[in-house]
Amino acid sequence: MQIDESLTHVLAWRGRSVHWQSFGEGPALVLLHGTPWSSALWRPIAEALSTQFTVYLWDMPGYGSSSKDPSHPVDLGLQGELFAELLDFWGLERPHVVAHDFGGAVALRARLLHGAAYASLCLVDVVALSPWGSPFFTLVKEHAAVFEQLPAAVHRGAVEAYIRGASHAGLGADDLATLVDPWADEEGQAAFYRQIAQADERFTDEVEPLYGTITEPVHIVWGNEDTWIPSDRAQRLSDYIPHATLTLINGAGHLIHLDAPAALAAELTRWLSTVAQ
Fold this sequence. Notes:
This protein is α/β, with parallel strands linked by helices. The chain has twelve helices and eight strands. It has a single domain, classed as Rossmann fold, CATH 3.40.50.1820. Strand 7, helix 10 (232-240) and strand 8 form a beta-alpha-beta unit. The two termini are 33 Å apart.
């Protein structure tokens, strides 16, 4: 999505600038984005939920309005450490957490390796179980330095094709542009391939055996037509977390926020109402 200029607060962390914002009133609710998105993908749903919750949005380093220094790692290990420390910075001991895509791995690592605790955890089409990554994702990972040198027009075409594959319903020109534009300039192109190059299944393999130790209420939401991370992973993840509940949303792919926004908002509202009494 386009850079969210409303993330006006900045945390300086290990040389990085982490942009964030909170708004609304009620129990704390933190939303985590995935790749290649930013917190802007959550913005409409965050605004709807802010009538009942104090919502926290943030962009991970390498994404959105946060810093994209090429010398800074942006891998899942680092993002998990950051999220645990960010919760401490905000003074949130047990917030409700909703995570999408690799934001799920970030939330799970913060919980299982870095001492974070949640009032509840909702995992939406998340990166959590190996194997993960599309054929394009794997190709880029193996040849990131080459892809960084692509002519701008070729790079944009590749990113557009990649992002189109995340939607089942199809993306209009405006939605596609807002998803692609942040990666289209020189800084964005380098950042796009850099974050893929640093993706590694060891970051989920490390915590996968620990999923059964999670004691907080867990809900899994998945687009039934997700081709990036097929919905059979949702059932597998539910089996790893025996007390987890599961909802599949028909007609939605990986970009469930755009494919089925009303259904996703309704499901999150229903779930949160059961755990935020």
